[in-house]
Amino acid sequence: MLSYRHGFHAGNHADVLKHAVLTAIIEYLQRKPAPVYLIDTHAGAALHRLDSEQAHKTGEAARGIGRLWNADSPPALLQRYLGVLHHFNPSGALQVYPGSSAIMQSLMRDVDRLRAFDLHPTEHQNLAAHYRGQRAVRVEHGDGFKGLLGQVPPASRRGLVLMDPSYENKQEFSTVASSVEAAIRRFATGTYVIWYPRLARQSADAMLRRLHRLAPDNWLQVELNVKRQPSDGFGMFGSGLYVINPPWTLPSQLAEAMSWLVTTLGEDDHAGYHLDHRIQ
Q1: What distance in Å separates the CA atoms of residue 178 and residue 162, rounded to the nearest whole number?
Q2: What would the mean pLDDT of 134-151 be, rounded to a whole number?
Q3: Which of 141, 223, 241, 242 has the smallest number of CB atoms closer than 10 Å to its CB?
Q4: In angstroms, rounded to a whole number, what is the distance separating the alpha carbons of residues 63 and 29?
Q5: Nearest to residue 100, comparing CAs of 163, 141, 43?
Q6: Is residue 67 packed enough to be buried (19+ CB in 10 Å), middle (13-18) or exposed (0-12)?
Q7: What CA–CA distance (Å, rounded) separates 123 from 137?
Q8: What pLDDT shows up at residue 9?
């Protein structure tokens, strides 16, 4: 399905959680000098203007990153993430929100590489134009689920895969699990970050059970709910991340950050979080 455009949702509470964790994992992987191969299976546009008609139509950025931008003393995990965003907003005014691929690219060292996929023709054109001339970044116009298998394992045997489809098609929950399972057969030591929405009518439970069976001793799950479930069953009230082969440092970082995020991004008294992990 090609109707989804992330410009309407860029910088929302889900992006805050996803990109803060993404930043922390990349920085951990870069503690070693070996190259890190970054794969974004559903990249979307590289940059999103927060003064655009799309952003103003939903107001999600104002309720998401807008609440963090000038907040006092955020936890360390969020300070590093906000530092990345300031790279894209050097004037100090929050005007641009980077997509996942742009965040990855901004954190890359000279030895690191990025492969970004997107099936939407307009988003692919945006990506191709943004990264034109950057030899360390390759953009593919295609299905990231299928394209992932051609990228693993990387030569360095060190890599991160971000998988965050729109889930507009409910079959994508199953496709995510199947795609990760196939990739892990080739690259069992990679770090896989799977984002999913918290929706009343489309549960991610079956997908999460399948993902858990793939790495029962090395996983982390974190969920952030910003409001109560909608009574009509429609709409996203939170989001989650399931990480296979997470850094051992990530649980303590999230334990410090999540309560602060609930207070900062919560929209009613049903806001809360869940954090669980097993890391060997």
Answers
A1: 15
A2: 96
A3: 141
A4: 31
A5: 43
A6: middle
A7: 16
A8: 84
**pTM of the predicted structure, to 2 decimals:** 0.95
Mean confidence (pLDDT) of the chain: 94
Closest CA to 160 of 37, 280, 248: 37
Rounded CA-CA distance 239/273 in Å is 10
Known catalytic residue at 110: no
Q: For the chain, percent helix, then strand, then coil, each to nearest 5?
A: 40, 20, 40
Q: Is the peptide bond before 74 cis (omega within 30 degrees of 0)?
A: no
Max avg pLDDT among 70-74, 122-126, 235-239, 241-245: 241-245
Cβ neighbors of 72 (< 8 A, separation 6 or more) are none
Residue given tokens 């909608």 in the structure block: 230
Sign of torsion, CA 117 66 251 222?
Answer: negative
Among 15, 164, 217, 269, the one annotated catalytic: 164
User: How does 102-140 read in b/e, with b if 16+ C-beta sit within 10 Å?
Assistant: bbbbebbeeebbbbbbbbbeebbebbbebbeeeeebebb
DSSP string, 215-252: -TTEEEEEEEE-SPPPTTS-SEEEEEEEEES--TTHHH
State the pLDDT at residue 55: 66
How many angstroms separate the CA atoms of 70 and 82, rounded?
10
